[in-house]
Design brief:
Elements: E1 4-7, H1 21-33, E2 38-41, H2 53-66, E3 72-76, H3 82-95, E4 99-103, H4 113-123, E5 128-133, H5 142-149, E6 154-160, H6 164-172, E7 179-182, H7 188-193, E8 198-201, H8 208-219, H9 223-241, H10 247-256, H11 272-284
Parallel strand pairs: 1-8, 2-3, 3-4, 4-5, 5-6, 6-7, 7-8
Helix pairs in contact: 1-2, 2-3, 4-5, 5-6, 8-9, 10-11
């Protein structure tokens, strides 16, 4: 089961918008050299939802091609189509993934979300991690999350609600078999204080040691140090997000030595001056 500092690796795009699979492999190797051993592949923040099914499969295969023995590889299989979910799930199992990550339906209303996830679990060839993502709409309530986690096959919860009250309600009835994961770099400290065991991180693609240091401080219950590091993570997150959905993260990763390709949306690309400004801000944080 994934835990600790987990990467949601970016899908690298070339100048024409095609997936650059060799760059993806190089990025995974860079992260592994830095100590990362957990990956959640085809994530939303990583821009994988723009890909077709065959591209998503090839992205997973590319990660698994270079994944070191003992690495935990989870894969997001969210789709509007149950048939597509089943196809991606079977492929993930055959390819060698260790678990599946599943969200609520994007946009379209869900009248019976618990029944929906029960149906997914009944056909799943791998353990499931529930991913409650605010940006997709159809936000699951704390009671619904607890009910879903009690379904056979569910082993974890990735919380991306950014709602501490919701998280506290979930934790009050959290099944012992499940692992709690933060879905936002901004809530690593809070999630760990409530019993969390890991973070699925975007910042780890840029500054792995920063995330590792925060996780280590929380695991050792050094809350003072953890709070200081969370404040730094939040500052860095604010800097990177100020440049758009993924462009700031990608540009910062390149500055840090991990090239992760271009954003899917080309007009999000940073200008030379913006890159210089970003570099100075990261130097001020003593990160590069």
């Amino acid at each position: 089961m994934i835990n600790g500092g987990v990467s949601e690796p970016y899908v690298p795009f070339d100048q024409k918008g095609a997936v650059d699979y060799e760059t993806l492999k190089a990025a995974i190797n860079w992260l592994q050299d830095k100590g990362v051993r957990g990956f959640m592949v085809n994530g939303i923040g990583a821009e994988a939802l723009v890909l077709g099914l065959q591209e998503r499969k090839k992205v997973l295969e590319s990660v698994l091609d270079v994944a070191k023995t003992g690495s935990e590889i989870s894969v997001l299989i969210t789709s509007y189509s149950p048939d597509a979910i089943n196809e991606l799930a079977r492929h993930a199992k055959d390819a060698g993934a260790s678990s599946l990550v599943i969200t609520q339906h994007p946009v379209y209303p869900m009248k019976k979300p618990v029944d929906y996830f029960k149906s997914i679990a009944s056909k799943s060839p791998l353990p499931l991690i529930l991913y409650n993502e605010k940006q997709l709409g159809n936000l699951l309530s704390a009671a619904q999350v607890v009910s879903i986690l009690k379904i056979d096959g569910f082993v974890g919860y990735k919380d991306s609600t950014k709602d501490v009250g919701h998280l506290q309600e979930v934790v009050d009835e959290f099944p012992k078999k499940s692992v709690l994961l933060s879905g936002s770099d901004s809530l690593i400290y809070t999630t760990y204080t409530l019993g969390g065991k890991g973070i699925v991180s975007l910042i780890i693609n840029v500054f792995p040691q920063l995330v590792f240091d925060l996780v280590k401080s929380m695991e050792s219950r050094d809350f003072k140090k953890g709070l200081e590091l969370q404040a730094k993570v939040n500052r860095v997150r604010g800097i990177l997000k100020s440049y758009g959905f993924s462009a700031g993260y990608r540009a910062a990763a390149k500055l840090a030595g991990n090239y992760v390709g271009h954003p899917f949306t080309k007009d999000e690309e940073l200008s030379e001056q913006e890159v210089k400004d970003l570099e100075q801000k990261l130097k001020n944080e003593k990160l590069i």
